[in-house]
Design brief:
8 helices; Ubiquitin-like (UB roll); binds FE2/S2 (inorganic) cluster; alpha+beta; binds FE3-S4 cluster; binds iron/sulfur cluster; Fumarate Reductase Iron-sulfur Protein, Chain B, domain 2; 237 residues; 7 strands; 2 domains; five-stranded mixed sheet; two-stranded antiparallel sheet
Length: 237
């Protein structure tokens, strides 16, 4: 089958403003991914098209983009899952500076991520018997969902609260804080909750819910944010 792509293009070194590039591809299969189509445009029609990608299997989180108005990973979005009978519109994710074409600058995103201490701070010394720190299955299940994050930014860049103020720490950072806040072995829960209780923390979330359907890992993002809000209201764990 034939498909038409409309891709937002912008090269700050030569373009005054962004524009739409239009491309037609033939011999396309419904099982082709949007990433495969973008690669074909780049390899067969215009080598200057710039995009970020690595694993091509939904693992690395590097090819988040807006496809037909919705944040998705290009590599896991098959044509049969979207309306390919009309022109497929592809844009960079919103709220981050565009470096070139579909590539955005993730520095602000990772700054928010780093700000919530997204790493394990042991609550107890290494056990003297040299064994691991035990955790019950129920305690492990408490944060299982938020371990699945691949830091693709689909959630944060779908959030109107983040679009309005890039200072908002954003759902991805909160998800990664949640993963440690609810880990029974961690000793920095209060520090993280204090960070997230700041004005640019969780209270900037207005429960708009864009983030949850945007997550390619099907993490219950809004629920995780709600749990962190509740933990702050109730004081420390
Ligand atoms: Fe991506 Fe989901 Fe992680 Fe957000 S929570 S960064 S959408 S994987
Ligand atoms: Fe934004 Fe998600 Fe909250 S879209 S306002 S972080 S529920
Ligand atoms: Fe790695 Fe899509 S290229 S997630």
């Amino acid at each position: 089958m034939e498909v038409k792509l409309r891709i937002r293009r912008f090269n700050p070194e030569k373009d005054q403003k962004p524009y739409w590039g239009e491309y037609t591809l033939t011999d396309v299969e419904p099982t082709d991914s949007v990433l495969e189509l973008l690669n074909r445009v780049k390899w067969e029609q215009d080598g200057t098209l710039t995009l970020r990608r690595s694993c091509a299997h939904g693992v690395c989180g590097s090819d988040a983009m807006r496809i037909n108005g919705r944040n998705r990973l290009a590599c896991t979005t098959l044509l049969q899952a979207i309306d390919a009978s009309k022109v497929i519109q592809i844009e960079p994710i919103l709220g981050l500076k565009v470096i070139k074409d579909l590539v955005t600058d993730f520095e602000a995103f990772f700054e928010h991520y780093r700000s919530v201490m997204p790493y394990f701070v042991p609550a107890t010394p290494v056990p003297s018997n040299g064994r691991e720190r035990y955790q019950s299955q129920a305690d492990r299940a408490r944060f299982d969902d938020t371990t699945k994050c691949i830091l693709c930014a689909c959630c944060t860049t779908s959030c109107p609260s983040f679009w309005a103020s890039g200072q908002y720490v954003g759902p991805a950072a909160i998800v990664n804080a949640h993963r440690f806040i609810f880990d029974s072995r961690d000793g920095a829960t209060n520090q993280r909750l204090n960070i997230l209780a700041e004005p640019d923390g969780v209270w900037r979330c207005r429960t708009i819910f864009n983030c949850t359907p945007a997550c390619p890992r099907e993490i219950e993002v809004t629920r995780a944010i709600g749990e962190v809000k509740l933990a702050i209201q109730q004081g420390a764990r």
